[in-house]
Amino acid sequence: MGSLLKLIFPFIIIYFAFKMGGWIIGLASIIIILAYLFYKNLPEIYIMRSKYLYLKDTDKMFALLEKAYKTGRMLPDHKIYYGYMCMREGRYADAERLYNAATLFQKDPGVIARAKTNMALLMWKKGDIDEAVKTMGEVYENYKSTVVYGNYGYLLLEKNEPEKALEVNLAGYDYDNTSDLIGDNLAQNYYMLGDYEESRKYAEEVIERKPQFPMPYYNYAKTLAALGEKEKACEMLNEALKYPFSGVAAITKEDVEKLLIELA
Length: 264
Hints:
The chain is built from 14 helices and no strands. By secondary structure, the chain is mostly helical. The mean pLDDT is 89.
């Protein structure tokens, strides 16, 4: 009811402005309300424009995100998004600044969990895997989501703890068996444990959904190579090269190309 009232309240004001003040007051009320709505939603306008520019004009995208931040009215989740984009591009100091800003005076456990989850990834990218796993473990104890399961399971694999990772990844799969990240984690997990057939099973589930990032294709290629299917492995590596490589991913274009040369 409150949301509906907020939606219709401007129209009520405009109606009475026209009725009691005539055309001049009515038109003035429309201009004032539109100006207020533009001011109020300016951060979201900047963010929408920045998302359109992703992969088209990175510098302008970041300029718009910074403008949204400097309004002082950027929502916590938008700060986390901005921080993540910084992290993807290797702007680690800016990412840390934004994650900290997102949790400042914040009481919403969901926002705190999302910010700390991204902060854990930042720690990993900066080379502190132990602190990254510790931070994700703290989040995991108190908050569950597809992203939390996916990132925690992934970081445990990066720390080379496949047995503990398997517990988290299987629990994550029970929570959301449609997640490409969790499915890929399980495929990689079983690969690390030497169970290549089980790895293939989960990898194929992910590949059937045609993920738009290179990691699942690369990991599936490693499993196929271990099973002796080098030709198909090369097909998967060539597929991986069709997608953009982000600064958050564990693999680079060079990693894919190197494995492709080894298998060719």
